Amino acid sequence: MSSNKNKEPSYDNLVPSSKESRFSGGTAGMLDEERALANFDISFLRDFWNGGKKNTAKRRWIQRSLEEFYFHDKHEWTREEYIKRHVHYFVKLHKELALKFKPTADEIAFMSENALLFGAMNNHYNLFVTTLKSMASEEQLGWWLKKSLTFQIVGCYAQTELGHGSNVRGLQTTAHYDKKTQEFILNTPTLRSIKWWPGGLGKVSTHAVVFAQLIIDDKEYGVHPFMLQMRDENHMFLTGVEAGDMGPKMGDNANDNGYLLLTDVRIPRRFLLERFQEVSPEGKYVELNKTNKNAHYATMLHARGHIVRSTGGLLGRMVTVAVRYSCVRTQGFTSDERKTSFKDTEYKVMDYRTQQYRVFKQLSITFALRAASRVLNKMFKRMDEIKTGGKAESDMLKELAATSGGLKSLVTILGADGMEVCRKCCGGNGYLLNSGIGANSQDFLWVPTAEGDWMVMILLNAKYLLWCIKQVMSGNEMTGTAAYLNRLPQLGMDISQAKPKPVDTLDAFMDIDYLKELFLYSALSTVANGAKAFMERTAEYGFNEAFNEVSNLMFEAAKRHNYWLMCDEFHAMVSEMQDESTRDVLENLYILYVTTNMLDEHWGSLLDEKQYTFARQASEKMLKRLRVNAVAIVDAFDFPDYVLNSTLGCADGNPYERLFEQAKNTSLNKKEPFDGYEELLRPHLDTEFLKKGNVLPKL
Questions:
Q1: pLDDT value of residue 342
Q2: Cα 641 from Cα 651, distance rounded (Å)
Q3: 21 phi and psi angles, rounded to 5 deg
Q4: How would you label 297-327 residue by residue, b for 16+ Cβ within 10 Å and e otherwise?
Q5: pLDDT tens-place string over residues 592-630
Q6: Residue 633 CB: number of other CB atoms within 10 A?
Q7: On the chain, which terminus has fewer CB atoms closer than 10 Å, C or N?
Q8: CA 692, CA 13: separation in Å to the nearest integer?
Q9: CA distance 389 to 140
Q10: In this model, does residue 29 exceed pLDDT 90?
Q11: Three-class SS of residue 443?
């Protein structure tokens, strides 16, 4: 937006002011007025959101490095331009620091939450490099890691196939060992075995970690990771390799998701990643680390954790736009008089209770998603502390795999749905790519189906819950995320005994400890009822068919279980806040998260009519409390304008000037008439009639 206020105002030089005029939307100062209403210090919430003052400083340092790349015109780019700009942006930001700076999990999340342009190189660092670190031997790391970190080679993670996603054991790419040459021969032997979807594969990557069935002397050893060079010094394919981009997608245009065909591609024996196993020259399969046979899933577990953490931040960006725009957009007269002048005062859109419910619900979910990230962070820390191997490590990995899959599934669908709610809450202008919501939500839409459809992934979590119930009913005690199921044996599966006693007042109902107990009961009841139905089916069917029969029940059970994990950790977040006024804000968000879940997530008979009434009343009360703090809360997310990249959500609250300037500068408006006019439209027009202009026609 033009900053030259000394020039005469015009449509080429819009100057925001608090008074609506020919060259101003009249919204200047409205967000500052909203900020003045806040009854808490946003610095406490900002530092809490970031994980402390030091983390806030780190986050801002990361953000400052992005400012020179303000891609205000990116919605006009071609796909070729997207990929070109992304590679330049990513390499320039990372190469200099690659060997000097080892980011923490928080810092990596800050990078993702504030990223201006996701694409192929994100897969290189987040998946390819992570896979090398977790699966390659020390010697192999010496061959490839430094080159990967400094972009001397660029890689992708080639697991998913045209016919297989979440069922990793069913992958059909093969790696036959040739004893004579001491090489593996890689093939995608069927159409369905073609590698399909890996980001970075289509155009950018020189290498790939290829997941394939290891076969020695016709004996299958399961899926293993292999290093493969695909392209040579001129970026052309090596013999037997064919790859390409999959084509246009709904979003994520800087990511060259691709396909890979392999025909008798030979790689050295030592290109099997060897941290956990190796194959001898004679073809003997040797396990080197027996702590857990499923350790090769480590990359995806960490990827899930990263996705969960960044999703909360990305939804926070969209909520920031929706809150700010809703607080400056006016619509509908405040007066009930029918003869109101068109100049009379209108409501701010945010003052409508329906808008508050939609937007503030997403605001509360944003904090719940941060709670989900904390759950996984604690689990990863516990995993790192287990050094004994054996059953303890195996059980921990099983829990982490199930929980990361369940939370990743629920968190990403909540994120995707929430972004779409925010877009709709911005009305027609939310549909514009420059709104900062439409484009980002489209770029995110692939995430709920990464690894497989989100419902498939959460059902894997449901199977873990059935295993947990089997353990507790057999006298074993669960720890961690499933510890609440230890109550089942003493209840004899009669869950009604665990239901918290009803309360008689709204204030008692809104007690956060009471709400936590209600939520715990809902999880315990839903999971137990699903398990009971499953057990009944096993009398007639095998495990898989019995599970299929009750899969809809178990889907709801797994959802409720993961909602409970977020509820429990959100409660802990509230309890940790030391500043009283900020704690009140977090408590209001927590109450809204719980009560909107009760109202919108089919709690059914878990609550009686009086409790549903309390839930509605509590949610309405929280909307009123949050209204005065809404802008201050999203300010605490601390997203600068060049990160939001939004005409609607800038911190100064001047959307109309930005919208018009973006429209004037769009590429389609640079030429009159439009391409194709002379040959396609002009021959059909009555040009003699059009010559007359705005005059009454003569019959």
A1: 86
A2: 7
A3: -150, -175
A4: bbbbbbbbbbbbbbbbbbbbbbbbbbbbbbb
A5: 999 999 999 989 989 999 999 999 999 999 999 999 999
A6: 28
A7: C
A8: 33
A9: 24
A10: yes
A11: helix
Q: pTM, whole model, 2 decimals?
A: 0.93
What does the pLDDT look like over 360-412, one tens digit per residue?
Answer: 999 999 999 999 999 999 999 888 877 656 677 778 889 999 999 999 999 99
Q: Is the pLDDT of residue 166 over 80?
A: no
Q: What is the 3-state secondary structure (H, E, C) of 498-562?
A: HCCCCCCCHHHHCCHHHHHHHHHHHHHHHHHHHHHHHHHHHCCCCHHHHHHHCHHHHHHHHHHHH
Rounded (5°) CA angle 153-154-155: 120
Q: What angle do CA 453, 209, 253 make, to 5 degrees?
A: 55
Mean pLDDT value across residues 58-78: 89
As a whole number, mean pLDDT of residues 305-317 equals 94
> Is-contact 434 662, C-beta < 8 A?
yes
Residue 410 to residue 559: CA distance in whole angstroms: 7
Whether the per-residue pLDDT at 5 is higher than 70: the answer is no
Element at 175 (helix H, strand E)? strand 174-178
C-alpha neighbours within 13 Å on the C-beta side of residue 392: 8
Task: DSSP for 226-242, please give it.
Answer: EEEE-B-TTSPBPTTEE
Nearest to 464 by CA among 562, 375, 390, 563: 562
Contact predicate 408/457, CB 8 Å: yes
Name the 3-class secondary structure at 427.
helix
The pair of structure tokens assigned to 177 is 């060992």
Write the DSSP string, 451-496. TS-HHHHHHHHHHHHHHHHHHHHTTPPP-GGGGGGGGHHHHTT-GG
Identified catalytic residue from 161, 399, 420, 451 = 451
Q: Is pLDDT at 294 greater than 90 in this prediction?
A: no
CA distances from 279 to 214, 262, 620 (A): 10, 21, 64
Task: Indicate if the pLDDT at residue 292 is higher than 70.
Answer: no
Ranges of H-type helices in 542-629: 543-549, 551-576, 580-600, 609-627
Between CA 654 and CA 542 the distance in angstroms is 62
Catalytic residue check, 451: yes
